[in-house]
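## Example record

The block below lists the input lines for one assembly entry, exactly as stored, with component labels intact.
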Amino acid sequence: MDGTESQDELYQKVAQEYGEALARMVWAYEADPELRRDLSQEIHLALWRSLAKFNGRCSLRTWIYRVAHNVATSHIVRQARGKSVGTFLTLEEAEAQAGLEDVEHSADRAQALSRLFALIQQLDLLDRQVIMAYLEGLDAESIAEITGLSAANVWSKIHRIKTLLVRRFHRGVRNAV
Amino acid sequence: MPCDELPDDLMLPWKEAGMNGQVFSPNQLRAEAEKMRAKMRRLYLVVSVGFSTAVASYAIIIFSFHYFHNPLMLIGSSLSLVGFGYLVIDALVKRARALPDLGETDGLRFYRTELERKRDWMRGIGWRLPIVGVAMFLVDLGLIQLLLKTSGFLAGISLSWGVFVLGLCAVWVPVRNSRMARKYQERIDALDSPMRSAGRTDPKG
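Predicted structure tokens for the full assembly:
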């Protein structure tokens, strides 16, 4: 089997196994449907390219999440063009805003879900990476390996972001009932 | 705390989202990669033609000095050539700089590198563009001197254009860019504390 063949096979395996997780990640990074399609394509293209260089120094899962998050980071920083990079909320700002925010009405669970995506989209990129990896079921050590944060820092971030999101998410769902 | 009482309740709607992601075959991705390369080649061609046209125009002014005999135009066009040349070399050097490897680089380091790249771009344009702006304004002043002998109206239009270019290149862009560069720097500074807590003394390493 030559290099191209194994790269293609590995990509197909990865796309099958992680396709849904990558799609959720794209939704949580990009609100605009047109840009979402572009980002999805960018991520898959980068993954396919990078798999040729995969050397097994970290797990395949870590490699995939790193590539996907890094491509998304580039995409968001590029789209921001200096304007909204200053408007991503730090955790402190998001927590302060959650206390002041008016209760909004969500029509159904689908809307509540899109609200969850919208809430994640407001966070700074690193916080997004942490919470998305957590929601995908990764443990703190794996998240630390992907993000480069310490495991203790990951735990603290997960706790704070989760508290924030649960509070705001449930507010939306309760109103939907 | 709500998150301790309901540990998995955010995971459920997240997993329920059941997104059907786009599916790509390796051949589609290969074709897409080729399309992107072609797009980049076209972009470089357009930019190169643009720069070449500007450089050629200012070079013509220098060579026709004996015809115009205007020192302001000579100084301005020489400075413009230097300014444009500097911008081209700078762009080529930046292009040659290696980007961090996507799979090898963790999110924190990659985010920092991206922010640094944007900050440096903003700062770079912020102080390089005024050189070109001032140079183009000098050429314009020389042209106004010549036009004043024939048409005051055309000289007025030329002056307005020159002031606009000077304001854009030497005032508006640098002020706007340095403000943006500051924003990026604030973000970078905010990233340094998680880096230190992750045990990294060198933010780049």
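Residues 99-106 of chain A have pLDDT under 50 and may be disordered. Residues 88-176 of chain A form one domain.
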